[in-house]
Amino acid sequence: MVRNLEGTHGLYFEATLQLRDVSEEVIEFAEEEIERLKLHVAKVVNLKNGRDYFLSDNTLTRRIGKNLQSKFGGKTEESASLWGVKKDREVYRVTVLFRGVNFKKHDFVIYQGEEYQVKILSKDIMLQNIKTGKKVHVRYKDMKNIKKK
Q1: What is the C-alpha separation between 126 and 96, in angstroms, rounded?
Q2: Same domain, 70 and 143
């Protein structure tokens, strides 16, 4: 159960979960995780390329980001900013960004002009060349160079 946020109002939040360039399946999974973890949602903002959730717990929001990354691949980034001081303790707000990919494990893609199959989506993307069998690791920051076939 989410801890009692004593003395706060309904718009209080500690973390922001940002979903960008994701499918409806990813949004549904994130919302199921928020419910399962019993996180208080202060606000939801729909954007052209995604959705932002303002949530009550930094640690649990980070966990959702890791769960999204392990289930769907994609790129996860975290940042924190000092929000204030409460009872002589610095309070940070965390932002977890999850950026989806437009391909899945076992999909066929074009990378550097050649055809590959997606083998692994984890810390990076592992592709296997269809003709040569050679495996290549691609960082998520370079995923724009991979086109779904």
Answers
A1: 24
A2: no
The residues near 70 (Cβ < 8 Å, ≥ 6 apart) are: 122
Q: What is the pTM of this model?
A: 0.75
d(CA 42, CA 56): 7
Does residue 115 belong to any structural domain of this protein?
A: yes
- Return the closest-CA partner of residue 75 out of 105, 98, 51: 98
Query: Which ranges constitute the DSSP H helices of the chain?
Result: 24-36, 58-72
Task: Say which residue the tokens 């086109």 belong to.
Answer: 147
pLDDT for position 66: 92
pLDDT of residue 116: 93
CA 126 remoteness from chain centre: 19
Q: Which two tokens stand for residue 86?
A: 């409460």
Q: Are residues 86 and 141 in the same domain?
A: no
Amino acid at 123: K
Whole-angstrom distance, CA of residue 29 vs CA of residue 67: 9
Burial of 10 (0-12, 13-18, 19+ CB in 10 A): exposed
The residue range of the domain holding 141 is 108-148
Based on the domain organization, do 126 and 71 belong to the same domain? no
Q: What's the token pair of residue 146?
A: 């991979």
